[in-house]
Amino acid sequence: MVAVGSGLSAGEALAAKAAAIVMDARTGQVLIDQDADSIVHPASLTKMMTLYLTFDALDDGRLRLDQQLPVSSWAESMTPTKLGLRAGSTLKVETAILGLVTKSANDAAVVLAEALGGTESRFAEMMTRKAREIGMRHTLYRNASGLPNMEQVTTARDYAMLSRALMRDHARYYPYFSRRNFVYGGRTLPNHNRLMSRYEGMDGIKTGYTVASGFNLAASAVRDGRRLVGVVMGGKSAVSRDNRMAALLDQAFGRASPGRDDGPVMASLDTSRSDAIDGEGDDDDEEPVVKAKPTRAALQVAAVPVAPARDLKPTHDAKSTRGGPSHWAVQVGAFSSRAAGNKAVSQAVKQAPVLLRTAKASVVEAKAGKDTVYRARLTGMDEQDARKACALLTKHGHHCVAVSPNERS
Length: 409
Hints:
By secondary structure, the protein is an alpha+beta fold. It is about 30% helix and about 20% strand. The chain has two domains: about 10-255, 3-Layer(aba) Sandwich (Beta-lactamase); about 320-405, Alpha-Beta Plaits. It has ten helices and 13 strands. About 55% of the residues are buried.
């Protein structure tokens, strides 16, 4: 069993050293490379490609978020972690997405794979073809979940490329990766990415673990308007892997920023909301969570364009949203000074004067770790105008996220 394009056997892949890479999300410039081309096993990072192909299908109409997909006996047979799906039942596409992002549900991954490929093995062939299109030269897929398969191999560099591709090609859906938890079957399922709860500016992406792979993490974070992606493979524990990622990102953010010639940086949701849960899951090694040395607070100057939320269509019913239809807002950044926040609000109004003509400017002091930031928002909007305004501002290179009444904190 030969790792494609690598010349390494599966046994050699198993013995490959831990690897890591940090890239600038906009330009692809490699800032840190630590054995980034070593052949490793992706484990549940595999689900990032499953989601990429799911987002492709949503964009071209082969799937809908509210579509119910059949659950097969093969999907039910998957080992944990899983949602506990039963053969003969159905699963909504959006629920499957959330199951992959937060719970890393192997049964939900198979449901999506069979819906798109007919069988999981055919879907794995689709995954490998897409990997080549993206430029992932050393990646080979055999399943949609990342469950152990010695032929399923990749590199840290390939997964940094996939991370960038998800942001570039599917910005509309990227906010799913920021979900701290979701409720399924009466249970609140927390996100396995513990680092999101303690590294300011991080808003995804995915954890993974098998015995062969060690502890893996693909992550992305924003500081001062600059987004980086990092991949750590082969950690000895979830805690040590997370600490390594935090240290690598801190180091990379300390370096000079490359020229801003590749368009606006991908956005960051405000991940400091109070509903954050420090979750356990498929990469939990039963170590206590050791709080890392506090990292410098990130000033979240960017935001993911038009978060999909639970439904992508505007809600016009005043009773459907707490506080009525005019309690939405758009956030155009979080800054180190009130003056900078006021300037951002002013620029936003100039860029979208019709949509923002009745909105009220609000620059509010807030805590981001130990630092103070000033959230710049325009309030008193309905959902439709808030989403339209963010789409327009993002198109013109500004940073914006629509904020629902439930997120007004």
